[in-house]
Structure formats: C-alpha cells, structure tokens
Amino acid sequence: MEVDELFGEKAFQHYCAEFIKHSQQIGDGWEWKTSKDGSDGYMCKAHFQIRTGTVESHPSASADVQTNLPAEDTFELPPDDFEVVQTEAASEVIKYEYHVLYSCSYQVPVLYFRASFLDGRPLTVKDVWERVHECYKTQLLQGPWDTITQQEHPILGQPFFVLHPCKTNEFMIPVLKNSQKINRKVNYITSWLSIVGPVLGLNLPLSYANVISQDE
Length: 216
Fold this sequence. Notes:
With about 220 residues, the chain is an alpha+beta fold. The chain has helices at about 10-25, 125-130, 135-140, 145, 170-180, 190-195, and strands at about 30-35, 40-50, 55, 75, 85-90, 95-105, 110-115, 150, 160-165.
C-alpha cells in the first residue's frame, strides 16, 4: 500500500479478508459479519480475559484453554463444545467482543468493543479505563475519556465502546513509510491492530507478522 493512497473501504475489506484467512488457519477466532441489507460488514472476535488467578479446564474443552495462567493472561472459549471451566482464586473473568469497522469520515479502521463480567454485568467507561495496561495509560492520560468513549455501533445500533480513530493516520503513516522504504508489503489491518489491540488486552499471535499482503 502506497503511503499517499487513500485507505478506501475496498482496501479495508481486502486486508480484512487476508487477515481472517490467516486467523482461520491458526484458529484465532476472527470472522466477517455482514449487515442485514448486505451493504456493510465488519470483522469481529469474542475474547475472554482472566485478570488474576488459576484456570482449570475440563478434559473435553479445547486445548487452547491453558492452566496456571499468570495475571492478565487471556484464553479462548470454543463456541459449541466447551463444557466446564473452573476458576480458582480468580478475581474476575471478563468477556470482550471486538469489532473492526471502516470509518468513512476518517478513512481508517476503527476498533469497537464491549465488555462484560460472566454474570452479564457490562463494564463502564471507568471500568474499561482502569483495565488499560499501565504502559499505555501515560500516552492516553491527556484525554482518556476522549480516546475511549461509548457510542452506538454503526451497524448493530447497540452501545459499544470505541477507540477513537483521530490519531490513526498519525501512527500508521510512519509504519507504511518504513515498509515502503525497505520494500516490504504489509497488511494494514495487521499492522494497525498490533498497535491498538494491546491497549485493550488484544494481542495478535506472532504468525500474523509473517503473512505478507498481496496487491489487489
């Protein structure tokens, strides 16, 4: 992708398709959802995070569920065949739902998300901010309530939190310029999500970095 090119919706869908293809290969859980009228779509993933404690899984559960997880570790729950997960000395288990949409206004991808405890109670903006990793808080302290806000999901019409995209070009242009300088093709979505995801506890497996985007 050329640095001076506009990041259009077709390019967004192209990079998402490549991203999801690799996700399916490694079982990372990302999928594409389309609006009822078929005019729009978004990439999404459900994710469970344990803040502290130990997790023990039933033998029939997926091997992806790990035991003896350290603080702030995360794990995936299979949608259908999961039976029992027992938590011991765990302070909290939170379900995150991440949605990646295209912003026509900013012409960049936007990360929408919502989070809730296992009993269904949703997290407030304050709860979400308190769970942002300390190493990222310094960068967000100048305007945390402007950076992470609650808005209506453009497609679902439901309340979601959103990581505001106003500074996306600011940190993505250097990434694209560097890749262009060394003549290396990158997947915009992979590069972008690897930067913004960790702020909200979403970390990409390293194998995504090895997937080179192909021109349309």
